[in-house]
Design brief:
Helix content: 25-40%
Radius of gyration: 20 Å
Bound molecules: zinc ion
Order of helices and strands: EHEEEHHHHEEEEEHHEHEEHH
Number of strands: 12
InterPro entries: SP-C_palmitoylation_site
Strand order of the largest sheet: 7-8-9-6-10
Oligomer: single chain
Shape: globular
Number of helices: 10
Largest sheet: 5 strands, mixed
Number of domains: 1
């Protein structure tokens, strides 16, 4: 068993001829799609376009990463497990081992990240901001990549979960099949909507977000959310990720010759730092306005009461609101 780990961030080598997971040199046609093939098929994504940070666009079919046959097989196993689970919707996905779901989401997130980083390395293109040149970002991506090695090498995470994953059920809209995704590379956030299931994940927080959001999650878990509520919940998680201050480090435990897998331990980089920066309603409202764009609710409306931003998710007592219709109250 080959336990050697790979790290493309040491030299920032994202060659289109090096397997994204292990670095093996591959030919032009040894590539896998960033978004699982079954997703593209089920939601007819092939020719749909997605936009990169530099405003250029690619189709889902064009979003590919180099992958050697050995790693491609591991990715295919992961794909099949999630595809089978997703057939029964939320219960199926909830029954999946969290690590499987994490790695499946991680591969898509990473595929987008690498595509963005490659664009950044193109001297003709000036992105809005450069993730590759920021040491803090680099540290995050390296830690994240170390976790993602668990796709190809048997790795156990000892006594920790690397991520926070929330799954909620949405009220069924007019459309029967619906796919959406959203990401934020700097905060390691990724979400996917598969029909009436919304998956919202932070892929590098050792579960801190989920812990911090316990009071809200306790109300929301198991409920069926109106889309405007799901958008608000997403805004809360994305904003929490924005004020999350730590980057976990992972260490490989010393191996014994008979070991059949690697064990990772974790440490959070600086225990003197605050885990979360203070939650500021004014900044949160800016985030929420973006998530509520389809409903045209402005930041001013959200902040009518600056001490208590508008919420369709929770009532004044912090309990979940059953919601069929919504209206912005006038104070
Ligand atoms: Zn490989």
């Amino acid at each position: 068993m080959d336990f050697r780990l790979y790290d493309p961030f040491v030299n920032m080598t994202f060659s289109s001829h090096a397997c994204f997971l292990c670095g093996t040199i591959v030919s032009d046609d040894e590539r896998i799609p960033v978004f699982s093939g079954w997703l593209q098929k089920r939601y007819d994504l092939g020719q749909k376009k997605l936009q990169l940070l530099d405003q250029s666009t690619l189709t889902f079919t064009e979003m590919q990463i180099p992958c050697c046959p050995v790693c491609a097989e591991k990715v295919a196993e992961l794909d099949q497990k999630v595809e089978a689970a997703s057939k029964t919707g939320l219960p199926g996905l909830q029954a999946l081992e969290e690590k499987t779901l994490f790695l499946w989401l991680a591969r898509m997130f990473y595929g987008i990240l690498v595509t963005e980083l490659k664009t950044e390395q193109n001297p003709l293109i000036k992105p809005e901001y450069s993730v590759g040149e920021n040491p803090k970002m680099l540290h995050k991506f390296q830690s994240f990549f170390q976790l993602m090695q668990a796709i190809r090498v048997p790795i156990e995470f000892d006594d920790f979960t690397p991520c926070s994953i929330f799954m909620v059920e949405l009220q069924q809209g007019e459309q029967k099949t619906e796919f959406n995704y959203r990401d934020d590379l700097t905060t390691m956030m990724f979400s996917l909507q598969l029909d009436n299931v919304l998956i919202i994940a932070n892929l590098l927080d050792n579960g801190f977000l989920k812990k911090a959001m316990t009071p809200v999650w306790r109300e929301v878990e198991g409920k069926v959310l109106h889309p405007i509520q799901a958008a608000e919940f997403s805004a809360r998680v994305y904003y929490a990720a924005y004020i999350f201050n730590l980057t976990p480090d992972y260490f490989v435990r010393r191996q014994k010759p008979e070991d059949t897998h690697l064990i990772y331990d974790t440490l959070v980089d600086d225990i003197t730092a605050t885990i979360f920066n203070p939650w500021e309603h004014s900044v949160y409202a800016t985030a929420l306005e973006k998530f509520w764009l389809p409903w045209q609710i402005s930041r001013n409306q959200i902040l009518q009461n600056p001490e208590s931003p508008l919420s369709f998710l929770l009532d004044a007592e912090g309990r979940f609101r059953e919601l069929q219709e919504w209206e912005v109250p006038v104070i």
